[in-house]
Amino acid sequence: RTGTLTLTSTSTSATITSGGTSFYNLTQNGSGGTYALQDALIVSNNLTITAGTLDTKLSSNYGITVGGNFSNAGTFASRNGTVTLNGTNQTLSGVTSFYNLTKNTTSTATLTFPASATTTITNTLNLSGASGALLSLRSSATSTQWQIVPRGTRTISYLDVRDSNNTNASAISVDGLSITNSGNNTNWAFDTTAPTVTNVTSPKTNGSYKAGDTVDVQVTFSEAVTVTGTPQITLETGSVDEAV
């Protein structure tokens, strides 16, 4: 079912008990109020904190699963809980500190972070796409950096990152993790050195080609490379503009 449940209590001891029920949209709008989870919270669409505090409860650290957007204009007390984003294209809004933040997908998806705002993960940042289906990390305003502070473990792979500013002292390592640099990223340890050619081989010797031949050339690089478009090679006696 669709619809929005809006919580408006201003009590500092209000609670949320789902009993295993999934909410569609859940909005907390109780100025000065605090809602403490009494069990795991599942929101199949959007979770919105417009005022007050949503508390995962210190004694239990209940997890929250969100299928849509997570918006925070109030206070989110993450304690030691995990927020899992299990939708496709999702957006984070506001300045938020998570303990654990997880989004894993096997299909192409985008996670949008708030431009110019800071998202902090105090324990584990777990973000991954899949081979041929990258999870794109983007800013809510293109070319304006979104700030991230991953203080603990970074479990990341198959990402496409753009406009990100990691303000943690430790750079985010991407070596061997299939992570694409789409530009305007700060303090991500992308390799900026171009690979070098270490070997070139061909089954034919020099001078043995004739007009109309397909040139079969094998090129070895100093590291793994991704080839897009139609490669071009240049020979000493001319140029070839054909697929390698």
Key descriptive features of the protein:
244 residues; mainly beta; 49% strand; 0% helix
Descriptive overview:
- By secondary structure, the protein is an all-beta fold.
- The chain is about 0% helix and about 50% strand.
- It has no helices and 26 strands.
- It has strands at about 5, 15, 20-25, 25-35, 40-45, 45-55, 65, 70, 75, 80-85, 90-95, 95-105, 110-115, 120-130, 135-140, 145-150, 155, 160, 165, 170-175, 180, 190, 195-200, 220, 235, 240.
- The radius of gyration is 24 Å and the shape is elongated.
- The N and C termini lie far apart (about 55 Å).
Produce a short descriptive summary.
The protein has 244 residues and is mainly β. The chain is built from no helices and 26 strands.
Poorly predicted runs of 5 or more residues? none
Query: For the CA atoms, what is the radius of gyration?
Result: 24 Å
| Main β sheet profile | 11 strands, parallel
Give the total of beta strands.
26
Percentage beta strand: over 45%
The topology string of helices and strands comes to: EEEEEEEEEEEEEEEEEEEEEEEEEE
Q: Structural class of the helix and strand makeup?
A: mainly beta
The overall average pLDDT, rounded, is 89
End-to-end CA span: 54 Å
